[in-house]
Design goal:
There is one protein chain. The protein has helices at residues 33-38, 42-68, 75-94, 97-115, 121-156. The protein contains five helices and no strands. The protein folds into two domains: 39-115, no CATH class; 117-150. It is mostly helical. It is extended. Helices cover 69% and strands 0% of the residues.
């Protein structure tokens, strides 16, 4: 990102003319996402371990839990426990350094998506028809090549 206008002119909270914005400023992380993701700590190790155990447990709920807990014979109970374990695993991952880096990456992607110039409805329709036409042309070419090589192989065999 460049230093000046890339943060939609609201990172500092003032515009080029010096007037105050009414919106809250968007702050971009001071550390790069890669630096944050490469940090490791005991907390991260523990959270990753808990998340992995929760995800593995979520896959084994329907097979093993009904043997030890009678209410788990109900399919909706199994679904609820599985979903709960998956959500718990993702929450654990969100609190790791890698999860923090991922949240920053998503925030930066949102900022970039606001800058995209999307095609109009007419452009989208025109591009779609162009792609369909090219696919038909290449399909016919490949079909003709297939017929030609099948004929050649038939003559050889």
């Amino acid at each position: 990102m460049s230093d000046n206008k890339d943060n939609l002119d609201i990172q500092s909270g003032t515009s080029a003319s010096g007037s105050q914005h009414t919106k809250d400023p968007i702050t971009v992380a001071k550390e790069s996402v890669v630096e944050v993701a490469k940090k490791h700590s005991a907390k991260d190790f523990l959270l990753w371990l808990i998340a992995i155990i929760a995800m593995i447990s979520a896959t084994l709920v329907s097979q093993y839990l009904p043997r030890y807990w009678a209410p788990a014979n109900n399919v909706w109970t199994q679904i609820a426990i599985t979903v709960s374990l998956v959500v718990f695993g993702f929450i654990c991952l969100a609190f790791t350094n890698q999860g923090s880096a991922f949240k920053t990456l998503l925030k930066d992607a949102g900022i970039e998506l606001r800058r995209v110039t999307w095609p109009t409805k007419d452009e989208t329709a025109r591009y779609t028809w162009q792609v369909i036409l090219i696919m038909i042309i290449f399909g016919i070419i490949i079909w003709l090549l297939d017929m030609f090589f099948s004929y050649i192989v038939g003559l050889i065999i």
